[in-house]
Amino acid sequence: MAKTAAVKKKQEKETKNKKKERLADQKNPLKDIDLSSDDLIRVYREMLLIRRFEEKAAQMYGMEKIMGFCHLYNGQEAVAVGANAAMRESDYMVTAYRDHGHALVKGITPNEVMAELYGKVTGCSRGKGGSMHLFDADKRMMGGHAIVGGHIPLAAGFAFGSKYKGEDDVTVCFFGEAAANQGVFHETLNMAALWKLPVVYICENNRYGMGTAFERAFAVWDIYERASAYDMPRSVVDGMDVLDMYRKTKEAVDRAREEHIPTLLEARTYRFRGHSMSDPIHGHYRTKEEVEEMKAKDPILNFGDLLNKEGIFNQDEMKDMDDEIKKIVNESIEFAEKSEEPPLEDLYTDVYVE
Ligand SMILES: Cc1ncc(C[n+]2csc(CCOP(=O)(O)OP(=O)(O)O)c2C)c(N)n1
Ligand SMILES: [Mg+2]
To answer: Is 136 helix (H, G, I), strand (E, B) or coil?
Structure first.
């Protein structure tokens, strides 16, 4: 029996609507994510804590309360936070000198990090490491390393240790793209693949090594492809998107844990501030327009908008959280200011393992 025109029209409309729904579903960044609403809010909070903490640290640096080297992670927060969400507490983390975000997300308290920046004895490295050397071995935060690329082989060592002892912890190692041009990067990736080590290497490609654009220093711009020389799984990640960071790190961490297969991830990200506190924000090596264009991809603002749009966390709740975080950061300043400097006798302690 022939369909009436009205029935046919209704069916066509239903098919069209279903297609629309399917497309919207595919585009939903939260689709298939195995994080609860509480986890998503925690991830947002961790990024915001890092941002507010560093804004305050920059202010205190300007007032000469904090001295020495200090490299801010502004703009890159989604990398450490997304990756950490894919790790277990007992997994090892190791990174370079741009380490405030990594230390905070691995559980070193704002008080201990701020006191370390101030060079006070209550700091996580007893005031003797400073901004570039944030450590807490109990929390499996293995630093904070100032020698570019120097910690890449250490990560292989931690992973070797876990495998040797029959433990299933994974090591996640972060480094800047310029570190991938150190010879030790290649030597270590070769060994990690050969020895099947449970390690995930995350290259934070923020496009500059100090004032050198990576396009001027790399013969091949897809840095992750370097892993193909070692038959290692590899992937490029949107480092401005905390969910992409989480998903791709999770895949890599699970593979490392279950099959002892290492991975190289290249997180494409951007630092909003200068290389260190002594550098201007854009200097001569990048334009104001470029910085502004990248700021439109702010990982915190964009993730906040998504949570708001999806009805997970609204703007009032975000404002309350921001106030609470600012209070925590202000308290960390009070804590650091009230703390003592290390005593002179401490000059020779913590130099060698006792
Ligand atoms: C072996 C070594 N060479 C040079 C330096 C000086 N230096 C400090 S930071 C830096 C740039 C590193 O850039 P990248 O690895 O991309 O990390 P980012 O600063 O962008 O996070 C250089 C060359 C150093 N610390 N160690
Ligand atoms: Mg860089």
So the answer is: strand
How far apart, in whole angstroms, are the C-alpha atoms of residue 265 and residue 255? 13
Q: How do the domains of the chain map onto residue ranges?
A: 36-277+284-339
How much is the average pLDDT of 62-91? 97
36-277+284-339 is classed CATH 3.40.50.970: yes
Separation in Å, CA 151 to CA 84, 115, 175, 300, 332: 18, 24, 8, 28, 28
Binding-site residues, ligand 1, Cβ < 6 A: 98, 146-148, 176-179, 206, 208-210, 275
- For residue 329, give the amino acid letter: V
Q: Would you call 318 helix, strand, or coil by DSSP? A: helix
For 261, the 3-state DSSP assignment is: coil
In tens, the pLDDT along 38-65 reads 999 999 999 999 999 999 999 999 999 9
Segment 104-121, tens digit of pLDDT = 999 999 999 999 999 999
The pLDDT-based confidence of 25 (bands split at 50, 70, 90) is low
Cβ burial of 201 (10 Å; 0-12, 13-18, 19+) is buried
Note the pTM of the prediction, 2 decimals: 0.93
Ligand 1 site-directed mutation target among 210, 214, 221, 223, most atoms within 8 Å of CB: 210
